[in-house]
Specification:
Elements: H1 5-17, H2 19-31, H3 34-37, H4 45-52, H5 56-68, E1 72-74, E2 80-82, H6 84-87, H7 98-105, H8 107-113, H9 116-122, H10 126-131, H11 135-141, H12 143-166, E3 175-179, H13 185-193, E4 198-203, H14 205-208, H15 212-218, E5 224-228, E6 241-245, H16 253-266, E7 272-277, H17 290-302, H18 311-320, E8 323-330, E9 336-342
Helix pairs in contact: 2-5, 2-7, 4-5, 7-8, 7-12, 11-12, 12-13
The chain binds S-adenosylmethionine.
Residues 136, 153, 157, 180-182, 185, 203-204, 207, 230-232, 245-247, 250 line the site of S-adenosylmethionine.
Length: 343
């Protein structure tokens, strides 16, 4: 039976307004490492509460809610077990999503997001106001939060890597330099799929320090190296192909332009830049692009002036910095590949 239009409208608003329930339930399971405790055998709420040291009845209610969201599974005897979604919450699987949940719903972002109204009033700077400094300065000063952020990026990149590597022919990419490449998940995937390539991961020193395990897991240690530094100072030269995945969206136009200009300075004519970002539609409309607009809000709240961008906005930044946007390659992930030539 279809809902009355008014009830339908209320249900749509309720679904959006109550998003915090799903977020917080998932956060509890991730924080308590519930998935790790279910690896050996299914457990009921009492058993789970003994190992996680929380209230059994309350945890059971959280678990039931998550089962109803198809994150865990519950048997007819009340035992909770892992399903394929919950497997990714285990902390011991490669590119585990546990830290991505801790990052997405953890205290830092929760506090920053709770002041979206203040950010909208001010026009920018949610994280700066809440944390007292810009996000990347905050990470530099808080190693544990930085680790969670880097692992969250790793999990996200791992989930997207196959789609990105499959959408572009990297066989002639030569020396690949991943600028702001985090802990190296994308670079490792590109090298693993193309045995003739060599690569350099460039990011802040405290970030690239954690890349070795990614290179080892992907079997590319002999062809991958790291360089620590700031892309606002200089970017390593000598690459044939430069990658930038979800880097420019962290910054306002002035700083995005500064990064691109430094990248262009490192490149020679004939080398290529591949920007992996979402393409923001020109107009807001219901559908699968909601994620791009919501991520744009994430940038508004969390980053120093960052934003998602439309194709023409990327083309403008690129032409201002002596690049020519050649084409935009869609991928089966939410990201597109903006292919630009150094001119
Ligand atoms: C959104 S993350 C993307 C990481 C990676 N490209 C990925 O997609 O998984 C942005 C990256 O920019 C790096 N970053 C921020 N400021 C930087 C700077 N001044 N110089 C170099 N890297 C920087 C961060 O450390 C982080 O790894």
């Amino acid at each position: 039976m279809s809902l009355h239009p008014r009830a339908q409208a209320a249900a749509a608003l309720r679904q959006i307004a109550y998003g915090l329930r799903e977020s917080q339930a998932l956060y509890v399971a991730a924080q308590l490492k519930v998935a790790d405790h279910l690896v050996d055998r299914p457990l009921n709420a009492e058993e789970l509460s003994n190992v996680t040291e929380v209230d059994a009845a309350a945890l059971g209610r959280v678990m039931r809610a998550l089962c109803s969201l198809d994150v865990f599974a519950e048997s007819s005897t009340g035992k909770f077990s892992l399903n394929s979604t919950a497997e990714l919450l285990r902390s011991d699987v490669p590119a585990s999503y546990r830290n991505a949940v801790l990052f997405s719903v953890g205290e830092v972002r929760w506090r920053c997001w709770s002041d979206l109204l203040g950010t909208v009033r001010a026009g920018r700077g949610g994280a700066e106001r809440t944390l007292g400094m810009s996000l990347f300065d905050f990470y530099a000063a808080h190693p544990e939060e930085s680790r969670i952020h880097d692992q969250a990026m790793r999990a996200t990149s791992a989930a997207q890597a196959a789609a990105l590597v499959g959408a572009f022919d990297f066989s002639q990419a030569g020396v690949v330099i991943d600028v702001g490449g985090g802990t190296g998940e994308l670079l490792a995937a590109v090298l693993a799929a193309n045995s003739l390539l060599r690569g350099t991961l460039f990011d802040l020193p405290h970030v690239v320090a954690h890349a070795q395990s990614v290179f080892i897991d992907s079997g590319v240690t002999d062809r991958a190296q790291t360089v620590g530094g700031s892309f606002f100072e200089s970017i390593p030269s000598g690459g044939n192909t430069y990658l930038m995945k979800t880097v420019i969206h962290d910054w306002d136009d002035a700083r995005g332009t500064a990064i691109l200009a430094n990248c262009r300075r490192a490149m020679t004519a004939g080398s290529k830049l591949l920007i992996f970002e979402r393409e923001l539609p020109e107009i807001g409309a219901p559908g699968k692009t909601a994620e791009a607009f919501l991520l744009d809000l994430e940038m508004l709240v969390m980053t120093p002036g960052g934003r998602e961008r439309t194709r023409s906005e990327f083309a403008g930044l690129l032409s201002d910095t002596q690049f020519k946007l050649v084409r935009v390659v869609p991928t089966s992930s939410p990201l597109s590949i903006f292919e630009a030539d150094a001119v």
